[in-house]
Amino acid sequence: MVIMLVKIKKNLDDFNKLKQLHIVQAALILTFEFSKLFWMGIADISFLLLLFWPVFYRLFHLTLFRLSYTFWSFGLISLLHSVISIIIFSNTAPIGLLFLLFGHLSILMIEFYSLSSPLFYPWINWWEYDFRYRHDLRVEVQSQDQSYEGRLTDLRRESGCVQLFEHLQIGSSIKIKIKDSTNTIFDAEVVTKREQTLGRSHSYGVKFTWDNKTVKDEYSAISSNWRYVHKLKKQEKFSNDNDSRDNSILQ
């Protein structure tokens, strides 16, 4: 298991490895529940929980497999379960049980960090319909001698989320030109794809690549500006919402 974990840590962008990592952390917490049952003795509530957790982690795995955003709700429940268990049993449980809990927490944190990338769970403001407060960037995507208009909706950790109505193949190499900025063209690889409902664009998780420091510095500048504009527009919206609320009260 240790060898597999080392391999996974070196390939955190590989979705299949992340699914393996997810199975490992689920196995640790289920082993803890079975071991706790024998350590504390069989009780009605313990037996019911023993039936609950396998079903819970099966559903948890499905949310990851489908890249559903409910994954984070299941993850929060799993996190709280381990933290509360550590607090309750820290002074009474055998060291082996605590080791299982800390192992589960450690792997869960690695999983959370890896999946929070735009490749898997991009930040998308579905609820924001006012274009004045959207912070996505207009881009031109070039793929196989074709050029498409799209939007870059997330830009973090040398990765991004591109919204397109056209279909791109997983693993294909593309070029992305961010409009209204510079003429720099970024090379990228399509790593993940979210197919949306009819009438909505597809979300592509892309990994940027570069072979010289100039392009990397240009990416860093655009990424910093993207974060700054994001923060600025949130503050602007909050300020305008407060002004509108004050005006309605005065009327």
Mean pLDDT: 76
| Main sheet summary | 6 strands, antiparallel, barrel
Supply the number of helical segments: 6
Q: How many domains, in number, for the residues?
A: 2
CATH level-3 fold name of the largest domain = Thrombin, subunit H
CATH architecture label name of the largest domain:
Beta Barrel
Biggest sheet: strand arrangement = 1-2-3-6-5-4
Tertiary shape: elongated
Main attributes of the structure:
alpha+beta; 6 strands; disordered N terminus; 251 residues; 2 domains; single chain; 6 helices
Task: Describe the structure in your own words.
By secondary structure, this protein is of the alpha+beta class. It contains 6 helices and 6 strands, in the order H-H-H-H-H-E-E-E-E-E-E-H. It has a 6-stranded antiparallel barrel. Strand 5 and strand 6 form a beta hairpin. It is elongated and about 65 Å long.
Strands, helices and their partners?
Elements: H1 2-9, H2 15-40, H3 44-65, H4 71-89, H5 95-115, E1 137-143, E2 146-156, E3 159-164, E4 173-178, E5 185-194, E6 202-209, H6 213-250
Antiparallel strand pairs: 1-2, 1-4, 2-3, 3-6, 4-5, 5-6
Helix pairs in contact: 2-3, 2-5, 4-5
